[in-house]
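Hi team, as promised in this morning's meeting, here are the two structures we talked about. I've kept the exact order from the run log so nobody has to guess. The first one is mostly here for context; it's the second one we should focus on when we meet again. Sequence first, then the predicted structure tokens.
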Amino acid sequence: MARPSKVDDLAAIEARREALRAQLAELDERAKAAEQTARDAGRATLLTALERVKIAALTKQEARTIANAIGQHGGKAIADHLSEFRAV
């Protein structure tokens, strides 16, 4: 039985490597899209809650600061922190 030449094996390996790289690039894109979706998953819930309460005037900077805090620390951490205001 003849053994395949090393050149043929190397070419097959390179072809497989390129196919795997393409699959990995596709998975990376899908993961990035899923991460973006997950990062914005609470927006609809927050907007619905905001529609149900009266809110005093805010500056753009104040609104941006609140939104950035939620984005950076998460809704639970901000809600826990804000709940301290009720206790006072």
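And here is the second protein, the one for discussion:
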Amino acid sequence: MRRVLQPWRRRGQHRLHAGAARARRGGLVTPDGVVLLGCQRSGTTALAHALAEAFAEANGTFVVNGKLPYLLHRWLTRRDLEDRHLRVDEILHALDRRPPGGPGAARWRSAVEMVLRELAADVAEGVAGTDPIALGRRILRDAHKDVSVWGDKYNEYLLHLEHLDSLLPEARYVMLVRHPTDVARSMLAWTGDRPWRPTTEAAALAKWETWNRRWLDHAGSLDPARWIVIEYDALCRGEETARLEEFTGVPLWEHLRALRPPREPDRDLPLPPSVLTTWSQLLDHARPSTLPGDLT
């Protein structure tokens, strides 16, 4: 009798891509890591936890909401360095207020603190220079020097792409996109302490558009080999696993198979023309020749 394979086992589940094999052997994919980007409520947290498990098996670390580059943007300035004061307390407090997730997060947090404390002494002695970008690069690379591959997810990275790219000039970006109606309704249903959550559909759609336009405006300045755009529903259907595995260099089949598409979405919310245009352009970035442009 013919054996029927599940969707996640088709297209070579047991065949590791060259990049994935390198990661499993401990080969460094990039010193600047893999950064997961995406607007809030786009599925980034679910994908980030799957990546965290996969990176851990590949002798690496992927932190969920690590946000260290974001904090360096706020708390590492030229004036700080001229004043010989690296703001270690502020950075560590921000990391601990909402601790990063993932199986390697505690070890990562310890490594970050060790690096910050060592460099704070250099800053106080005046031997670390006054270039915040150069010191930020050193902090990030030293914090990850003992892992084979590393990555991070934080939604607010979308708001500081130029600075992020200056800190991580060799980073590889995974941009996760989701239909604007689904995101807007998920934002409105969000519970918990979310003071920045929109309270109307119009505001939620506007926020979705603004954040995703940040990616579209910046992507043209990047080498296309450094980024991919993944559509959330396609990811949940298992259609993007092979491409994402090839891009990250980490085996992902077993970790992504738990993702499931949400229930059939109700997309009757009228979308403004500018939102439709943004969604269409994101789909062009994702899979220009195969992804249907369902804009309704």
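Starting points for discussion:
The radius of gyration is 20 Å.
Residues 70 and 157 are 6 Å apart (CA to CA).
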